[in-house]
C-alpha cells in the first residue's frame, strides 16, 4: 500500500471546491495509483457546507480516497500538505478599491503562507486559484521563506485552455491539434494569449488565422471569457476552473510530454524581461516535478508590448502590496 498524498483545498465549500474535490478524490489529480487524503480548509461559516460535501464524497465510495478532514484553522489545514490548492479568496464587492481588495486578500494569503511554511510537507506544491491569483501567490510565497519559491504558482491554465478552444474552433481542427500557445503575464484582463509560436494541425497558426482576428476577436474573447460565463450562467466559471487546476497540478506532478508546452504563472527568474521574483505566466514545461520556462522564443514587437503591459500591472500590484506591508 502507498501512503496517501495529502491534498489541502481552501474554499472547499465554494463552487470551484464543489467541482474540484470529486475529481481529486476520483484520481484525476494524481493518477489512478495514488491514494489521496483531503484536508478541507474553510472559514467558520463555510464549515457546515464543507461537511455536506464531505458526506457526498463519502457516498461516492472512491477507492482512492483515504480520508477527509475539515478545518477552519490554516495551521491545521496545511499540516503535512503535499499539494495545496488555494481556492478560497475574498471577492471584490461593490465599491471596493483595488487597495482594499489586495489588503483583504493579504489577510488571507499571508497567514496561509505562514501556515504552509510552518507545517506543510517538504515537497509541498502550491497552486493559487483565488483572485487576484498572481499577487495572492506572491503574498503567500513571501510568507514562506523556508519553502523554495518555485513551489508557489498561480493559475493561468483556464486562460490557456480557453485560448486552445478558441483557436481550434477558428481553424476548424480538434483542440489536440493546437500546440505551443502561451498565456503571458497576469491572470486578469491584461493577460496576453500569444499565438505567434502556436501550431495548428502542424502549420503555423499565423498562416491559418489573420492578425485582424487575433486583435479584434481572439485576444479580447480569451481575456473576457470569465465575464461572458458570468453573463450566461449567472455564476462565475467553476467546473472549467476546477478542470484547469487539475490540469496544472497533474502536469506539474507527472510532467508535460515532448516539446510542446503549457502556461502557468511561476516565479520569474528574469526570463523574457519579466522582473525576477514576480509571479507571472510563461510558456512552461514540467520535468521531474519542476516547472521550466521554455527558453529562446522570439518575441516580436506586438508581443513585447502586450507582455510588458501585463507585467507592468503585476509590478503595480506588487508595489501596492509592498506599500501595504503585505509582503
Ligand atoms: P465561491 O465564493 O463559490 O467560494 C469561495 C469559498 O472560499 C467560500 O466557500 C468561502 O467561504 C471560502 N473562503 C473565503 N475565505 C477563505 C479563507 N480565508 N480560507 C478558506 N476558505 C475561504 O468562489 P469560487 O467560485 O469557488 O471561486 C474561488 C476563487 O477562484 C475566486 O477568488 C475566483 O475569483 C477565483 N477564480 C480564479 C480563476 C483563475 O483562472 N485563476 C478562474 C475562476 C475563478 O474566478
From TrEMBL:
Its EC number is 1.1.1.37. The active site is at 187 (proton acceptor). Gene3D superfamilies: Lactate dehydrogenase/glycoside hydrolase, family 4, C-terminal, NAD(P)-binding Rossmann-like Domain. It is an enzyme of class 1 (oxidoreductase). Residues 156-321 form the Lactate/malate dehydrogenase C-terminal domain. Keywords: NAD, Oxidoreductase, Tricarboxylic acid cycle. Substrate binds at residues 92, 98, 131, 162. One of its GO terms (molecular function) is L-malate dehydrogenase (NAD+) activity. NAD(+) binds at residues 11-17, 105, 112, 129-131. Residues 6-146 form the Lactate/malate dehydrogenase N-terminal domain. It comes from the Bacteria. PROSITE patterns: MDH (PS00068). One of its GO terms (biological process) is malate metabolic process. It catalyses: (S)-malate + NAD(+) = oxaloacetate + NADH + H(+). Pfam families: Ldh_1_C, Ldh_1_N. Belongs to the LDH/MDH superfamily. MDH type 2 family. NCBIfam families: MalateDH-SF1, PRK05442.1. Catalyzes the reversible oxidation of malate to oxaloacetate. This is Malate dehydrogenase. It comes from Georgenia muralis. The lineage of its organism: Bacteria, Bacillati, Actinomycetota, Actinomycetes, Micrococcales.
Amino acid at each position: 500500500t502507498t501512503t496517501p498524498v495529502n491534498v489541502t483545498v481552501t474554499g472547499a465549500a465554494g463552487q470551484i471546491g464543489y467541482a474540484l474535490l470529486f475529481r481529486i478524490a476520483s484520481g484525476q489529480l494524481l493518477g489512478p495509483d495514488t491514494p489521496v487524503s483531503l484536508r478541507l480548509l474553510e472559514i467558520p461559516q463555510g464549515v457546515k457546507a464543507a461537511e455536506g460535501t464531505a458526506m457526498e464524497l463519502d457516498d461516492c465510495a472512491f477507492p482512492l480516497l483515504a480520508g477527509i478532514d475539515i478545518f477552519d484553522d490554516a495551521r491545521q489545514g496545511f499540516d503535512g500538505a503535499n499539494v495545496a490548492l488555494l481556492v478560497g479568496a475574498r471577492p471584490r464587492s461593490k465599491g471596493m478599491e483595488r487597495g482594499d481588495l489586495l489588503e483583504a486578500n493579504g489577510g488571507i494569503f499571508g497567514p496561509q503562507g505562514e501556515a504552509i511554511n510552518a507545517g506543510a510537507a517538504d515537497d509541498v506544491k502550491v497552486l493559487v486559484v483565488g483572485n487576484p491569483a498572481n499577487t495572492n501567490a506572491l503574498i503567500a510565497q513571501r510568507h514562506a521563506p523556508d519553502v523554495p519559491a518555485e513551489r508557489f504558482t498561480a493559475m493561468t491554465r483556464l486562460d490557456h485552455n480557453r485560448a486552445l478552444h478558441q483557436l481550434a474552433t477558428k481553424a476548424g481542427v480538434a483542440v489536440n491539434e493546437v500546440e505551443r500557445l502561451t498565456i503571458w503575464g497576469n491572470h486578469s484582463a491584461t493577460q496576453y494569449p500569444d499565438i505567434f509560436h502556436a501550431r495548428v494541425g502542424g502549420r503555423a497558426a499565423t498562416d491559418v488565422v489573420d492578425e485582424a482576428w487575433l486583435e479584434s476577436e481572439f485576444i479580447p474573447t480569451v481575456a473576457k471569457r470569465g465575464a461572458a460565463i458570468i453573463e450566461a450562467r449567472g455564476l462565475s466559471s467553476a467546473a472549467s476552473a476546477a478542470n484547469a487546476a487539475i490540469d496544472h497540478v497533474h502536469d506539474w506532478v507527472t510532467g508535460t510530454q515532448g516539446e510542446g508546452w503549457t502556461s502557468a504563472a511561476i516565479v520569474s527568474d528574469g526570463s523574457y524581461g519579466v522582473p525576477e521574483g514576480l509571479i507571472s505566466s510563461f510558456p512552461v514545461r514540467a520535468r521531474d516535478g519542476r516547472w521550466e520556462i521554455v527558453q529562446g522564443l522570439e518575441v516580436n514587437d506586438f508581443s513585447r508590448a502586450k507582455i510588458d503591459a501585463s507585467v507592468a500591472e503585476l509590478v503595480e500590484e506588487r508595489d501596492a502590496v509592498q506599500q501595504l506591508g503585505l509582503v
